[in-house]
Design goal:
two-stranded antiparallel sheet
Length: 477
C-alpha cells in the first residue's frame, strides 16, 4: 500500500513538474515579438527608398539604388499599446469578416443540414473515405492557383472540420485540407494575379509566362500536402489521443448533441445545402469577375446564414442567438489577427523595413555567384515575416531583386520564381500571416498546436522550393 502511495505521489510530482513548462499564451508570444520589433527600431538604422507610381499599373514601386538613411525614429516601449490598437484598426476588415463568417456558419451548422449531408457522403464512400482528402486539396489548389484564393476560403473551414470529425479525424485535419489546398495552388502561382501577376509585370515579363514549371511545382505540392495530411489523419483515427488538439476534440464531443443514426436529408436540408453551394458559386464568380474582397464576401456569408436559418424554420430570435454565439467563438482569433498586425506597424513606424531589405540585398551581392539564387529565395522567406502581403512584397522587393539577379546571370523568370515561392511557404507558420491567423481563429485551434503540426512540412516545402529555384537557374528558366 505504501509503495502504491509513493508511486502515485511521484507521478503527481512529475506531472506538476511538466505542467510548469507551458507554452505561453499566444497573446504573450505576440507581445514578445512586438517587443523585439520595437528593440530593432533602436538597433537598425532607419532608411528609405524613393518610390514612384507605375503609370501603367498605378502601383507604387521602389526605385532601385535610391536607398538612403533617414533620422532615427525609434518606437518607444510606451507606444506599444498604441501600436496594438493601430494594428487592430488596420486589420478591422479581416476582423469584421471573421465575426460575420463565424456567426453565419453557426446558423448554418445548427440547422443540421451539414451533419446529414456529411453522413450521406461518408456512407457512400465506405472505407475509401481517405481518398476525399487529396480530391479536396486538388479543388482548393485550383482555386488558389487561378484566382489567388486564400482568405476567401476561411468560411469553408467549419465545414471541412465537421467533415473531418465525421470521419474520426480532428480539427487540424479539416483546417489543413483547406489551408494547404489553397496555398499549394497560391504558392505555385499558376495564374495567381496577386504574386506572379504583379511580379511579372514589374519584371517586364509576359503575364503568366513560364507556366509549365509552376504547374509541376503545384502537382508536387499537392502530392506532398496530401501525404502529410493523410498520415496525420490516419494516426488520429487509429488513436484519438495522438491528436494535437485532443482537448479541443474532447470538449467538442462533450458539447455536441447526440446525432440520430437514422437522421436523413429532408427538404429543408436540401434547400440549406443548395443555398450554401449557390453562395460558394456566387463567391467564386464575384472574386473572378467583380474583384470582390472582404466586405462583399462578408455580406454574402451573412445572407447565406440568414437564408439557412429561415429554411430551417428558425425564429428571428433563434437566428440572432446562433449568430452571436458563432461570433463569440472567433473573438480570440480575431484579436490575434489585429495584435499580430502591430508587429508590422512597429517596423514601419521605426522606418526600418527598407533598411532590412537594403541590408540583406547588400549581403547577397557579396556572396559567390552560385549562392546568389538561393540567397534571393531565402531573402524572400525572411522579408515575408515583415511584409506579409504578396503584392506588397512584390512592389518593394522585385525592383531591387530583378537588376541584382541580372548582374549575376539569374533570369528574370527565375527571380520571379524565387519571389513567389519565398513569399508563400512561410505564410503557413509566421504569426504575422493574417490569413493563417484568420483560419486558426475560425477553427478554434491554438497557434502553438498548429506550429507543432506544420513546422516539419514547412521545412520540407522550403527545401522543395530551393530545389526548384536551383533547377530553374541551371536551365536558365
Amino acid at each position: 500500500m505504501k509503495t502504491t502511495e509513493i508511486l502515485t505521489e511521484n507521478k503527481q510530482k512529475n506531472k506538476s513538474k511538466k505542467s510548469r513548462f507551458k507554452v505561453p499564451h499566444v497573446f504573450a508570444l505576440l507581445f514578445f515579438i512586438i517587443l523585439i520589433a520595437v528593440a530593432l527600431t533602436y538597433i537598425i538604422p532607419a532608411g528609405e527608398f524613393d518610390r514612384v507610381e507605375d503609370p501603367v499599373t498605378g502601383r507604387t514601386l521602389v526605385v532601385e539604388g535610391t536607398y538612403e538613411n533617414v533620422p532615427q525614429n525609434p518606437v518607444s516601449i510606451i507606444d506599444i499599446p498604441g501600436l496594438i490598437i493601430t494594428g487592430i484598426n488596420e486589420a478591422s476588415a479581416i476582423i469584421l469578416f471573421l465575426f460575420v463568417v463565424g456567426g453565419s456558419f453557426r446558423i448554418i451548422t445548427s440547422t443540421g443540414a451539414f451533419d446529414a449531408g456529411i453522413r450521406a457522403v461518408t456512407t457512400k464512400l465506405g472505407n475509401k473515405d481517405i481518398l476525399i482528402i487529396p480530391l479536396l486539396i486538388l479543388i482548393f489548389a485550383i482555386c488558389g492557383a487561378t484566382v489567388g484564393m486564400t482568405i476567401e476560403a476561411v468560411g469553408l473551414v467549419p465545414l471541412m472540420i465537421a467533415f473531418a470529425r465525421s470521419m474520426k479525424y480532428d480539427a487540424i485535419t479539416g483546417m489543413a485540407i483547406v489551408l494547404l489546398g489553397c496555398f499549394s495552388g497560391f504558392i505555385a502561382g499558376l495564374m495567381n494575379p496577386f504574386t506572379v501577376g504583379v511580379a511579372q509585370q514589374i519584371a517586364g515579363l509576359p503575364m503568366f509566362s513560364g507556366m509549365w514549371l509552376r504547374a509541376i511545382i503545384m502537382v508536387v505540392l499537392i502530392i506532398v500536402s496530401s501525404i502529410y495530411i493523410i498520415r496525420y489523419a490516419k494516426k488520429v483515427k487509429a488513436d484519438p489521443t495522438k491528436s494535437l488538439v485532443y482537448e479541443l476534440e474532447q470538449k467538442q464531443r462533450d458539447n455536441a448533441l447526440e446525432l440520430n443514426p437514422d437522421f436523413k436529408l429532408k427538404l429543408n436540408h436540401y434547400l440549406i445545402l443548395l443555398t450554401f453551394m449557390s453562395g460558394i458559386g456566387l463567391l467564386i464568380w464575384g472574386v473572378i469577375t467583380k474583384h470582390w474582397y472582404l466586405e462583399q464576401m462578408a455580406a454574402l456569408f451573412l445572407a447565406m446564414g440568414i437564408l439557412s436559418g429561415i429554411f430551417a424554420g428558425f425564429s428571428s430570435s433563434r437566428i440572432a442567438e446562433e449568430f452571436v454565439e458563432g461570433a463569440k467563438s472567433v473573438t480570440l482569433g480575431a484579436l490575434i489577427v489585429g495584435i499580430a498586425m502591430a508587429i508590422t506597424v512597429a517596423l514601419r513606424e521605426g522606418q526600418i523595413i527598407d533598411s532590412l531589405i537594403n541590408g540583406i540585398a547588400s549581403i547577397i551581392m557579396i556572396l559567390p555567384d552560385f549562392l546568389k539564387v538561393i540567397s534571393i529565395y531565402l531573402f524572400q522567406n525572411v522579408i515575408n515575416f515583415f511584409i506579409n502581403s504578396g503584392s506588397g512584397q512584390a512592389t518593394v522587393t522585385m525592383p531591387i531583386m530583378v537588376p541584382l539577379g541580372e548582374l549575376v546571370g539569374i533570369t528574370r523568370q527565375t527571380t520571379v520564381l524565387s519571389f513567389h515561392l519565398g513569399d508563400g511557404f512561410t505564410n503557413l507558420i509566421y504569426p504575422t500571416a493574417s490569413t493563417l491567423m484568420a483560419y486558426l481563429a475560425t477553427a478554434g485551434i491554438g497557434y502553438d498546436k498548429w506550429v507543432r503540426f506544420i513546422w516539419p512540412l514547412v521545412l520540407i516545402f522550403v527545401a522543395i522550393g530551393a530545389v526548384f529555384v536551383v533547377f530553374a537557374h541551371i536551365i536558365q528558366y
